[in-house]
């Protein structure tokens, strides 16, 4: 950002990640301390707030107003009733600072029947449908580790900030921008809700086995790897050849297994043979040989070993944080999702430093309003050439489409997008490639052009399209575009103002640059998968493509950063780095020996669950206690009445605990009503057991409403069906709007997360049929006539 944005950070943990992302983009971030904020560990403080300047709690509302007047963007988060900048009246909310780009992140949004409800990461993950997908069958649901729900909300907050700046440049006005943590989660479930929309069913937790892709975590001789055999036919044939070379393919060389439908139906048998093959090899050798064969396999790495990853180190991913009491050269933290062309990605940051409230900013003045140039959605007039497939890239471009960009999606029968063509990903019973449920949800609002890029005339058409587009987004393997005469330098000759975002799995450079990756392998490399393990158990992995959507949000942020700054350039975005950047303070905790649980020495991760002390003696009654928290007791997921129904709750502080214990009326809890955190921690098993018995006698929805009325964060653990059919709050906010598809008919879609009050986004059109807009786009942008189109069609270029 040549003109550094001044960001006023009024966040709590719901949006810490958003302010941190803006630090990574070079913004001048001033944090205002919050009264009575919970103390963070040293690792948490360094991770979330390094690179910021910090002022004390303003003495008056007027003092806070003066800071707002000096800022370009205000990011505020927390329960709605505790926000300093939001005013409620006549059933609507408005900003106290209407001239500002004011981003507000709340648990459930600023409108709707649950706008006053509270949530931490666990409760938001439950309400948004993410917790339902994690855990073992029959056991407690649990969300992904490392506060992914609130990190998703933070990423959307950073996106909202830049959209607000771009909109202000167009209109000359600030606005209030509403981000709901629940909706940020609900929009990031891959198939969890859309399976219900399209097939009347929804996936459930199963210990980490992907439902629609043949990938999972496998045990090796000395650890674990993530991998599988879905995707292109080569993923299967090359894995089979590898197993056959060592005589370990069993009956899989029989012709019947070459049929992908037959193979999918026999997945259990295939997995058993693959598991025997993997179990004879080390994790490192399995991953190395997989990379050498261009197959998607990766070692399940731990956070403690992440800084030794040669790919991340070679690309300068990590950040050193300097501060008082730290080694002279600082400590290592995860870096930021992508290296922007300018300013470069920070590799050294200082611990958060105090600043005088009278002059806290490092930049001389705010970026300021630019001359208003128009109205409408922030990205109206921006044309994006979409060369992506599967999930990460299409998720990014559908987000840009929501806010006004014209997306030109390039497809071909000769490079079949699995989300359109693979039977397991169509979701809709009897669907063909033009009404695949998966494709429909993630490609709405785009114009589809069929272009066979295996032909030279097809590549020539592509080069002509580059000259007519503002942004190009691609996720080809490194080097593919250059071989077509479309490296960034060549693109810039055709179009000097072009923004190119490359989304390769591990980036365009580095020793692993040619690695083939899926969402599960990226999660494994990043350290996230290792933390899905319950104590003493194998890592479970994730059953949905979280890493793809984390990378997608990073790509959106990259595009908006370039547009806001008026820059052209090439963003080399590594999906691995985007995923690793969402590991929170994990690497710092490993380096500092920091523990997230008071009294627990080094390394016992709260997210994976705490082990019953009886386990140390081998007592068979030992149980896993997942979902616990270092600063909240009780904090967990408990059964409610009904089959496999659960409620998540989080008690923040002694007063909330007293209200819960007294309301429950259970003797085991009533005797502990006055217990402080330390005593509750010591008797957490008793509390959990009593709460589980009490909750199991109540309907989850009614109980959640009752607890929220007591000021206690609680929500049912929502399934895909719950979100789409039974969530009155999402319904009131219109989160599942309907678009009319030419084949599927009226279809619900996942909605827009960033809700802008002055320049709102919109879902304007269903996903395109294959090549639906080929003729109109080529005529409109390239001036082709019917004769030229006919010649290209006859040559097999437009298919």
Low-confidence stretches: 596-622
Using only C-alpha atoms, the radius of gyration works out to: 26 Å
> What is the helix content?
25-40%
Reported for the largest beta sheet, the result is: 8 strands, mixed
Pairing-aware structural class of the strands and helices?
A: alpha/beta
Strand order in space, largest sheet: 15-3-2-1-4-7-8-29
Silhouette? globular
Instruction: Output mean pLDDT.
Output: 91
Alpha-carbon distance between the two ends = 41 Å
> Approximately how much beta-strand content do the residues carry?
5-15%
Number of helices: 32
Number of strands: 29
Quaternary structure annotation: single chain
In short:
By secondary structure, this protein is an alpha/beta fold.
Describe the structure.
- This protein has 799 residues and is of the alpha/beta class.
- 35% of the residues lie in helices and 15% in strands.
- The protein is built from 32 helices and 29 strands.
- The strands form eight sheets. An eight-stranded mixed β-sheet has the order 15-3-2-1-4-7-8-29.
- Mean pLDDT is 91; it is low at 596-622.
Outline the secondary-structure elements.
Layout: E1 6-10, H1 16-24, E2 28-32, H2 42-49, E3 53-55, H3 61-69, E4 73-77, E5 86-89, E6 92-95, E7 101-106, H4 121-127, H5 148-171, E8 175-180, H6 181-186, H7 194-199, E9 215-219, E10 224-228, H8 233-245, H9 260-265, H10 267-279, H11 283-292, E11 297-299, H12 303-306, H13 310-314, E12 319-322, E13 331-333, E14 348-350, E15 353-354, E16 383-387, H14 392-402, E17 406-411, H15 418-421, H16 437-442, E18 446-450, H17 456-466, E19 471-474, H18 480-483, H19 488-494, E20 499-502, H20 519-526, H21 546-565, E21 569-572, H22 575-580, H23 586-592, E22 610-611, E23 624-625, E24 635-639, E25 646-650, H24 654-664, H25 667-670, H26 677-682, H27 684-695, H28 700-709, E26 713-716, H29 720-726, H30 728-732, E27 738-741, E28 745-748, E29 755-756, H31 774-782, H32 786-794
Parallel strand pairs: 1-2, 1-4, 2-3, 3-15, 4-7, 7-8, 12-14, 16-17, 16-19, 17-18, 19-20, 20-21
Antiparallel strand pairs: 5-6, 8-29, 9-10, 10-11, 12-13, 22-23, 24-25, 25-26, 27-28
């Amino acid at each position: 950002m040549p003109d550094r944005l001044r960001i006023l950070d009024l966040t709590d943990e719901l949006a810490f990640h958003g302010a941190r992302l803006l630090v990574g983009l070079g913004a001048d971030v001033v944090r205002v301390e919050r009264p009575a904020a919970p103390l963070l560990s040293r690792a948490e403080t360094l991770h979330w707030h390094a690179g910021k300047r910090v002022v004390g709690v303003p003495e008056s509302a007027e003092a806070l107003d003066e800071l707002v007047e000096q800022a370009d963007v205000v990011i505020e988060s927390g329960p709605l009733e505790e926000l300093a900048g939001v005013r409620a009246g006549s059933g609507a909310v408005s900003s106290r600072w209407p001239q500002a780009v004011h981003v507000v992140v709340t648990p459930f949004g600023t409108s709707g029947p649950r706008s006053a409800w509270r949530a931490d990461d666990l409760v938001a993950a439950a309400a948004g449908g993410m917790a339902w997908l994690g855990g073992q069958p029959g056991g407690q649901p649990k969300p992904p580790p490392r506060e992914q729900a609130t990190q998703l909300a933070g990423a959307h907050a950073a996106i909202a900030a830049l959209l607000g700046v771009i909109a202000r440049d167009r209109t000359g006005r600030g606005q209030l921008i509403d981000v709901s943590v629940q909706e940020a989660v609900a929009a990031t479930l891959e198939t969890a809700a859309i399976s219900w929309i399209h097939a009347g069913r929804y996936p459930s937790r199963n210990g980490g086995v992907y439902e629609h892709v043949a990938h999972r975590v496998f045990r090796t001789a000395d650890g674990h790897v993530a991998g599988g055999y879905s995707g292109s036919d080569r993923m299967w044939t090359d894995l089979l050849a590898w197993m056959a070379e060592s005589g370990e393919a069993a009956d899989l060389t029989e012709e019947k297994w070459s049929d992908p439908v037959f193979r999918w139906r026999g997945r259990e048998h295939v997995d058993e043979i693959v598991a025997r093959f993997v179990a004879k090899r080390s994790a490192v050798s399995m991953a190395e040989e997989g990379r050498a064969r261009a197959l998607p396999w990766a070692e399940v790495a731990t956070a403690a070993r992440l800084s030794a990853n040669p790919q991340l180190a070679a690309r300068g991913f990590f950040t050193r944080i300097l501060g008082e009491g730290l080694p002279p050269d600082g400590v290592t933290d995860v870096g930021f999702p992508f290296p922007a062309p300018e300013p470069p990605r920070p590799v050294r940051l200082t611990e958060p430093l105090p600043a005088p409230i009278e002059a806290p900013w490092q930049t001389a003045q705010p970026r300021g309003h630019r001359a208003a140039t128009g109205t409408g959605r922030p990205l109206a007039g921006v044309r994006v050439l979409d060369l992506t497939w599967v999930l990460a890239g299409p998720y990014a471009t559908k987000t840009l489409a929501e806010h006004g960009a014209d997306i030109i999606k390039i497809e071909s029968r000769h490079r079949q997008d699995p989300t359109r063509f693979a039977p397991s990903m169509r979701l809709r019973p009897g669907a063909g490639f033009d009404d695949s449920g998966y494709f429909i949800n993630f490609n709405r609002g785009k114009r589809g052009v069929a272009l066979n890029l295996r032909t030279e005339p097809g590549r020539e058409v592509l080069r002509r399209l580059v000259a007519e587009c503002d942004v190009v987004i691609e996720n080809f393997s490194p080097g593919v575009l250059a071989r077509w005469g479309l490296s960034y330098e060549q693109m810039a000759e055709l179009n000097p103002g072009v923004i190119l975002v490359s989304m390769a799995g591990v980036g365009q450079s580095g020793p692993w640059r040619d690695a083939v990756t899926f969402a599960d392998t990226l999660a494994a490399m990043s350290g996230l998968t290792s933390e899905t393990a319950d104590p003493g158990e194998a890592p479970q992995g994730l059953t949905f493509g979280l890493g793809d959507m984390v990378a997608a949000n990073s790509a959106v942020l990259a595009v908006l950063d370039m547009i806001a700054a008026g820059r052209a350039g090439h963003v080399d975005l590594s999906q691995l780095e985007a995923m690793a950047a969402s590991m929170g303070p994990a690497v710092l905790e490993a380096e500092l020996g920091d523990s997230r649980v008071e009294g627990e020495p080094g390394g016992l991760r709260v997210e994976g669950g705490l082990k019953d002390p009886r386990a140390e003696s081998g007592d068979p009654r030992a149980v896993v206690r997942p979902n616990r928290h270092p600063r909240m007791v009780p904090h967990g997921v408990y059964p409610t009445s009904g089959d496999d129904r659960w409620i998540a709750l989080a008690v923040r502080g002694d007063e909330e605990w007293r209200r819960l214990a007294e309301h429950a009326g259970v003797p085991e809890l009533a005797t502990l009503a006055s217990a402080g955190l330390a005593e509750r921690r010591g008797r957490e098993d008793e509390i959990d057991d009593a709460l589980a018995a009490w909750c199991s006698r109540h309907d989850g929805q009614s109980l959640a409403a009752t607890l929220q009325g007591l000021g206690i964060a609680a929500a049912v653990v929502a399934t895909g069906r719950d979100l789409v059919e039974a969530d009155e709050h999402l319904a009131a906010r219109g989160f599942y709007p309907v678009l009319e598809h030419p084949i599927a008919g009226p279809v619900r879609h996942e909605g827009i997360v960033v809700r802008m009050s002055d320049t709102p986004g919109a879902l304007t059109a269903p996903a395109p049929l294959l090549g639906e807009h080929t003729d109109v786009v080529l005529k409109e942008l390239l001036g082709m006539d019917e004769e030229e189109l006919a010649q290209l069609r006859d040559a097999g270029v437009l298919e």
